[in-house]
Write a structure and sequence with these properties.
mainly beta, 4-stranded antiparallel sheet, 8% helix, binds zinc ion
Length: 76
Amino acid sequence: MFQGIRHTGSPRGRGEASVPVDKELLDILICPSCGGDVEYRQDEEVIVCLKCGLRYPVKDDIPVMLIEEAQKPASA
Ligand SMILES: [Zn+2]
């Protein structure tokens, strides 16, 4: 069976591979649950709310700021 393997690399081209998530984007992002500031954890590829601790996944360098997609902090 032929499997169509497509290489869907994220669009780069500005030579800023070391900063996958836009810092200006992070500045305007807030937690949709509590409205608190969020922080990008690059090593874990999550956006963490500094206020309520919800962890939002980052898919293809795009922060998924959805409460239903977020993980609650382990120490709840
Ligand atoms: Zn929050």
